[in-house]
Amino acid sequence: MLVSIARGDGRLSNVFRKAKVGEVLGLRLLNQLVELGIVEFEDSREPALKAYANQKLEKSLRSYKIEPKIRFKKPFHRFWFGFVEPYHKALNRGESKHFYENFNQHFSRLHSFVFEQLSQELLNVYYQNKLIINGNYWDKHSEFDIWATHKDGRKILGECKSTNRRVCKSELSKLEQKADISGLKVDTFALFSKNGFSNELKNAKDKKLLLFELEDFRILLK
User: Fold this and answer.
1) Is 191 helix (H, G, I), strand (E, B) or coil?
2) Could you read off the pLDDT of 18-52 as tens digits, one per residue?
3) In degrees rounded to 5, what are phi and psi of residue 37?
4) Are 89 and 160 found together in one domain?
């Protein structure tokens, strides 16, 4: 179960499928892990698909299910069960080839997850801890790294990029398009980049845009 959480997207149905357990047993195991403080549930904020009980859905949506995700509370557990546990027998024998192959192939996923969490915290600090909702958002169309609500009602949509290249304006355009498809009404877009931004983005005079570079994260160390 823990390996399935570490190696997947966190959606309950996918976790149960990868772990090869039924929903009843799976939920019982997850609740035990929650009590142990290892994982936590993150509820979906997607609006209900039906506006009224007897509404007929499009054929493509009839099998779609709004569901929560399950998250590790500590990045170390995601690392351990995603990289070490699947190869612990081989590692105990001194065989590390497959461990390193998997690590090199998938470590960027763990790195991105941690960068995303830090970005959420940085955004909260920027708004002086006045965000009443701050976390991921996913729906039938897309997934978003940050969808936050300020106590005054403003909505902030964020994208986190931990790659070794600068973020350019096309990334902002993609985010705007995704928001439009998902029907999100955004007051401010926030981009977080490990490797900085293009000059076009830096010079953009857009009051609805926030840019955060690696140097900005130093405030979290105080």
Assistant:
1) strand
2) 999 999 999 999 999 999 999 999 999 998 877 76
3) 80, 20
4) no
**Which range marks the domain in which residue 39 is found?**
1-45+67-95
Q: Distance between CA atoms of 45 and 35, rounded to whole angstroms?
A: 23
CA dist 175 and 208 (Å) reads 13
Task: Measure the CA–CA gap between 13 and 26, rounded to whole angstroms.
Answer: 10
Question: In this predicted model, what pLDDT tens digit does every residue of 116-128 receive, in sequence order?
Answer: 999 999 999 999 9
Query: Is residue 80 within 8 Å of 153, Cβ to Cβ?
Result: no
Residue with tokens 């350019």: 168
Do 126 and 216 lie in a common domain?
yes
Among residues 182, 194, 187, which one has the least CA distance to residue 210?
187
126 is a domain residue: yes
Other beta carbons within 10 angstroms of residue 52's beta carbon come to 6
How many separate domains does the chain show? 2
Q: Give the predicted TM-score (pTM) of the model.
A: 0.88
Under 8 Å between Cβ of 139 and 157: no
Structure tokens at 92: 């105990």
Contact partners, residue 67, CB within 8 Å, separation at least 6: 11, 12, 13, 44
